[in-house]
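Format notes (please read before filing issues)

Several people have asked whether sequences and C-alpha cells are stored in separate files. They are not. Every record keeps both together, in the order shown below: the sequence lines, then the C-alpha cell lines. Line labels are part of the format and must not be stripped during preprocessing.
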Amino acid sequence: MAPAQAQRSSRAHWLAAFALAFAAACDSGSATPEAVPGANGVLPGDGAEDFVSDVPGQNDGDKSGGGNGADDSAAPPEGAGDGAARAIAEADIIKLDGDTLYALSRYSGLSIIDVADPSRLRMLGNHRSKATPFEMYLREGVAYVMYNDYGSYELDAETRQWSWQSSSRLQALDVSNAANIRLIADEEIAGSIADSRMVGDIAYLVTYENGWCWGCDRKPNTRVVSFDVSTGTEFARVDELRFDSDENSYQRSISVTDERIYVAGPSWDAKDSNIQVVDIADPQGALKLGAEVPIRGSVASRWQMDEYEGILRVISQPTTWRTNDSPYVQTFKVESSSVVTPLATLAVKLPRPESLQSVRFDGNRGYAVTFERTDPLFTFDLSDPAQPKQMGELEIPGFLYHMEPRGDRMYALGYDFANGQGSLHVSIFDVSKLDAPVMLDRVNFGGDWAHVAEDQDRIHKAFNIMLDKGLILVPFGGGSYEEST
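Then the structure lines:
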C-alpha cells in the first residue's frame, strides 16, 4: 500500500528530550548542502561563542558560568550594549538552582525536585492550581508564577446572576520550604498572558484579550502591567497601560530593552501594521505610551523586531491570504521611546512569492527563512542601517522553525516532512561569509511526523544548545505511519 493510502498509526513516540552529539572537529568549509543531509554530527566551529542575539541563562551552556542554572538576573538587556543599568531576565518553565529543579506543568502545577543524584530523583514538594501555569521567575526563595485560564464564578450584584469569568494571575509562592509551599501574594490580570520580562526589580506582563474570552472586553486589546518585586517576598502592582487592537488581530509578541518594550503582532488580512512602543525607563515601574511605529506588513514573532545600538530593525510581511508581496527589511533610528524615525526600507528579493517562516538578528547581521518545503535561507548586512543589503541565499531541504546565531556559526531547528530519516532536524550553518552561507551538517529525527510544543516566541527555551558538553537538547513529540494489515 502506498504511504498516502496507509492508515495513520495511533502509536506515537513521545520523548522528553533528544540529544545530538557534536562530531569531532574537521574541515567542513567545502561541504555543500547536497552532501551533508543525514550526516552523523555537527561541528561547533570557530567563533561559536561570539554572538549578540543570545538570551543569556537560557541556552548558552556554561558560557555564563552556570549552565542552565545560571542566574538570569546577571543577563544583559536584549539588544543593549555594555553598561546597561538594569538587567533583563526571561521567565522559565524549568529552572535549575543548584541541586534543586523547579518545573512547571499544566497538569501537575509547580514541582520541586532534588536532582543531586540523577539516578534517584526525589520529589520535595508540589503546588497545584486550578489554572494553567504559563511561566515563572525564581528569586530569593520566591517563585513568581504566571497562570492563564484562571476561571471562577462571580455574582453580579445588580442582576443577582452568576457568570463564569476567566482571567490570568500572577502569584508569589514561598518555596523556601519545598514541603510546605505557601501562597503569599495573588493578583488578577485581565486577558491571557502573552509574554513577560523581569527588568531590574520590575516584572512586566503583557496580556491580550481577543474579544471572545469569558467575561473579557468585547474589543480586542493589549495590556502592559508592571509589578514591583523588590521586597523579595511578595509584589505590588505599579502601573498599567491598555491599547486597543483591530478586530482581526492576534496575540502580541514583544521585544525588550532596559528602556522600552516593543509590542506587535499579526492581523488577518492586513497589509500594514504598527509596533507600539512602551517606555519602561522608570526603574520604579511607571509606564508611558511611546511612539506607534508604522511598518510594512506585520510581525508574527518576537524575532522579527530587534533594537541594536539605537537602531530598530524589522523584517515583516503582509499577512493577506496568498500574498504576492515580498517581505521587507526596515530600519528606524530610536532617539527615544516617543521618537522613532524611519531610515530605510528594503524589499526582499525572493525566487517566488511565499511567506516568512522565521527571522533572527545577530549584531549587524540578519537572517530570514521562507515557508515552502525547499526554502532559501536569506542573509542581510545591517552594518549601515541607512542602507541594509540583501547578501546571500542558500536553498535547503525543508524549512527552519528557529535559528540561533553564534557568530560565524548558526544552529537551527526545523522541519522536513519529506525526509525519510525524520521530519524534525537540527542543522548547523557556516555564516562567516554573508554572501555565501553554507550548511555544514544536519541530523534528522522524530519519525514520519513530529512537532515541538513551544511557539516561536518561546522555542528558544526548549532548544537548548550546550556547546560546553557538545549537545543540543530538543523536547519533541513524534510518531510514524503504519500500513493497515
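For reference, the curators noted about this record: DSSP finds no helices and 35 strands in the chain. The chain has a mean pLDDT of 80.
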